[in-house]
Amino acid sequence: MFSASSTRGFTLLETLVATGILITSLAGLAQLFVLSSQSARHAGVSGAALVAAQDKLEALRGLAFAYDSAGIAVTDGALRPSPSNSLARDTAPYVDWLDASGVARSNAASAVMVRRWRISRVDAEMPEAIAIEVCVSRIADEVDTRWADACLSTIRTRQP
């Protein structure tokens, strides 16, 4: 019933081909594992950057930008217009430095991220609206808002 060739087992050539396929498959899986761990690490940094940008945006939105009871415009000093390049350069007081978890640090030496913001008038003729932009990026990256980990913006209007 059984032929002589079927009872001998696998040939050396069959074993080598199967081993080659197995090694190739395992190498592909190892590469996928490395890529997924890099993606997870990048997502963690991006998440911390997003939270840091949201925190600063909300802090700036919470500052006084209204009218008082006499109808006089009241604007917190921190909401004065910033230089146009404050998102690209460290321009005091429109910059701060953050650690890996997004907590502000006193200097750049102990930081891993930089948070910059820009405040500008929406219309020079009508100062009742301002645009607030906040960008957070890793310090290791070149300073370029196109590569920031998180950028948020909003427009704030002065209401009577």
Descriptive labels:
160 residues; 1 helix; rod-shaped; alpha+beta; single chain; 7 strands; five-stranded antiparallel sheet; two-stranded antiparallel ribbon
Structural description of this entry:
- There is one protein chain.
- With 160 residues, the chain is α+β, with helices and mostly antiparallel strands.
- The chain has one domain (28-157).
- Helix content is 31%, strand content 28%.
- It has one helix and seven strands, in the order αβββββββ.
- The protein has one helix spanning 12-61; strands at residues 65-67, 73-75, 95-98, 104-105, 113-123, 126-138, 150-157.
- The strands form two sheets. A five-stranded antiparallel beta sheet has the order 4-3-5-6-7. Strands 1-2 form a two-stranded antiparallel sheet.
- The relative contact order is 0.15.
Summarize the structure.
By secondary structure, the chain is an alpha+beta fold. The protein has one helix at 12-61; strands spanning 65-67, 73-75, 95-98, 104-105, 113-123, 126-138, 150-157.
| Average residue pLDDT | 84
Distance N terminus to C terminus?
99 Å
Helix fraction? Answer: 25-40%
Number of discrete helical segments = 1
Please tell me the total number of domains: 1
What is the N-to-C succession of helices and strands?
A: HEEEEEEE
| Widest beta sheet: strand line-up | 4-3-5-6-7
